[in-house]
Amino acid sequence: MKARLIGIALVLAGLGLGATLLRDQVPIGGASAPPAVTAPNEAAAKLQNELNTIDIVKRFEPGLVYISTEQDIASSDPFGWMFGGGGQETQVQQGVGSGFFVNAQGDILTNYHVVAGEGGAGTADRIRVRVMGRSDTVTARVIGLAPQYDLALIRPEGLDASLIKPIPLGNSDSLQVGQKAVAMGAPFGLDFSVTEGIVSSTSRQIPIGFSTTGSGEGITQKAIQTDAAINPGNSGGPLLDSTGHVIGINTQIYSPSGASGASQSAGVGFAIPINAAKNLLPRLQAAGGSVVFAPKLTGVTPGLVVQQRTAAGARNVAVGLSLLSSEGKNTLNLPESGLVVGTVAPGTPAYQAGLRGGNSTQAFRGGAIQLGGDVIVEADGLPVDALEDLQAALIDKKEGDTVTLKVVNAGKTREVKVTLDAAAFQ
């Protein structure tokens, strides 16, 4: 009886310590001899999920691309004159990232920040790619850039066509929380690595990409959240579902303050939904190496600007009403927050829909505001207080789509429905 109690205690201890202990050790009670152990059949012992993951990796990992970049950075050498130099030296800044083939022509989709130049401007001086199973790299050229979406399309030069293995694109609109997620990429430069997790959220709103208005923060967009391990170097790599279709493009991680080392995964990673990239892909392919911007309201300019001083000089930046004092807004009969409409070009869809700009300008220290026009306070139900807020409501739209604006003018609120024309995407 005592031996049996000891056996029960061992089992309970094993359960308390976790599944690993129980998997590796079977507690033995009493004086009974251990049962005969049969060597497991490893192939038969694999779980269905393991077999699925192995199949995904075998079939689609060859479509993954390792990306390396080099940027020449000129810096001042204060002691250069002592050795006959001009006081300038050039350092090479290197970067790594991931990407994947999207078509038979060899187009590679990746993050903009993977191929971007110093400070997020332009592109790196040299971009090279390497495919799985090869030690050599080839040069890649830029086909199209979309900084606001943090997306870029590049194409290798001189790569054997037989090495191009496109990965099929899925449908991110049909995702459900709890679905399997497989991330591929090059974390910390460890190329062709695979991690697995689940979809933690299908519509996490986070700033993505690079702002073009100087605010320093990207446009708030819908992102996929996953607990599949994503780390620096995974950027631009694909996030796949259990069918091996790409559901997202790994772009950011959440790293808690104080974590040891540089930006490490905390089990919270984000991916750009593949449907956003699919909508943008034709524009990227036709860009001819230039930048593709988020949709805008054709002929509409913001009416509240402040002067921002940078190293390159002063420039005007559009801002929202929330930056003005409540006293000033009350005096001017303006809402607490919103995007002031400065001008609306006649004949444009916005003008035809009834959106109106201001008729007078009032200057103030450090900026100016146009008065008498509409103030956009919502776009498709989303609050608007900055140009990025308006772009966030438009970012997934296509030509012919409509955006519903809630506007305030002279204390009265109304709705304006604007249809996006081709010029909205130029």
TrEMBL record:
UniProt keyword Transferase, yes or no: no
Catalytic EC class: hydrolase
PROSITE patterns recorded: PDZ (PS50106)
Entry keyword set: Hydrolase, Protease
GO MF, any single term: peptidase activity
GO biological process: proteolysis
EC number annotated for this UniProt entry: 3.4.21.-
Top-level lineage group: Bacteria
Positions of the PDZ domain: 304-411
Alphabetical list of SMART domains matching this protein: PDZ (SM00228)
The protein, known as: S1C family serine protease
Organism classification: Bacteria, Thermotogati, Deinococcota, Deinococci, Deinococcales
